[in-house]
Amino acid sequence: MADVNRGDRPLSPHLSIYRPQLTSMTSILTRITGNALLITALLIVWWFLAAATSSGYFDVVNGILTNWFGDLVMFLSLWAIWYHLLAGLRHLYWDTGRGLEIETAEKLGWGVIGGSVVLTILTALVI
């Protein structure tokens, strides 16, 4: 039988008391960077197709991808590549059954974040 007294029960405080954990946030960010890299790949394919089409069309697309906004998108894509790679390596490590303790998982999360920033800056300086 249906419960007719639903209004008297307290609601679950799930969002009002939940504190996001580093491991869950880095996992969500891994999924976001994966999708963002797909969009970046499509932009690069667009650039190649424009180069194969005509010089006028290539100039338009090249102008879009090499202005300040295009440079920002490509720099953030560079960070996304490093972040996604390091997070994938962390997941491979977890798949072996190691590093699953809370303290170790948090250290690995900070390592992925810090490592991706450092590797992005080093790569940008070299290129």
Q: How would you characterize this protein structure?
A:
The protein is mainly α and 127 residues long. It has one domain (21-126): 3 helical TM bundles of succinate and fumarate reductases, CATH 1.20.1300. The chain is built from 5 helices and no strands. Helix 2 (22-53) runs antiparallel to helix 3 (55-66), helix 2 packs across helix 4 and helix 4 (68-95) packs antiparallel against helix 5 (102-126). 10% of the residues are buried. The mean pLDDT is 91.
Number of helices: 5
**Average predicted local confidence, pLDDT:** 91
Architecture per CATH nomenclature, i.e. the level-2 architecture:
Up-down Bundle
The CATH top-level class label: Mainly Alpha
Helix-strand pattern: HHHHH
Task: Please give the largest β-sheet.
Answer: none
The total strand number stands at: 0
Approximately how much beta-strand content do the residues carry? under 5%
Question: What is the CATH fold-level name?
Answer: 3 helical TM bundles of succinate and fumarate reductases
Rough outline: extended
